[in-house]
Specification:
The chain is 51% helix and 10% strand. By secondary structure, the protein is mainly alpha-helical. A two-stranded antiparallel ribbon has the order 1-2. Helix 2 packs across helix 3 (97-106). The model has no long low-confidence stretch (mean pLDDT 85).
Length: 124
């Protein structure tokens, strides 16, 4: 079954196997599709910004430790984004992940969290 989803100036067709339009309205599928892209952005932050595309350890134990460290770093950045969002009066998803990571790497105890970049709202 195909459901159209308008995003910016293009049209995307989402093909799925959910055949009952009453149980699975097109608008809900479109919302889930948009949410999927938010999840993909989180994966990109892990892979590219936190350099998780290539694991460096050569043992199972080492890989486990490497993954845990990256997960801790990711959660620290996300927690800082949450705190910054409160100060900046926005949502955490609008605070720049890369800027927050840089701020954490370079910040001292006197650094102002309110200086983090707030990404503009992108429709669609």
């Amino acid at each position: 079954m195909s459901r159209g989803y308008s995003s910016r100036t293009r049209r995307i067709t989402v093909i799925n196997t959910l055949l009952d339009p009453m149980a699975y309205p097109a608008a809900e599928i479109a919302q889930l599709y948009a949410r999927r892209w938010e999840v993909q952005t989180c994966f990109r932050h892990l892979k590219q910004t936190l350099d998780l595309e290539h694991l460096r350890c050569r043992t199972v134990a080492g890989i486990g430790k490497e993954l845990l460290i990256r997960a801790l770093a990711y959660n620290l950045v996300r927690a800082t984004m949450q705190r910054a969002a409160l100060v900046l009066g926005t949502t955490p998803s609008r605070v720049s992940f890369a800027d927050t990571l840089q701020w954490l790497l370079l910040a001292d105890t006197e650094a102002d969290i309110g200086c983090l970049i707030v990404n503009r709202v992108r429709r669609g």
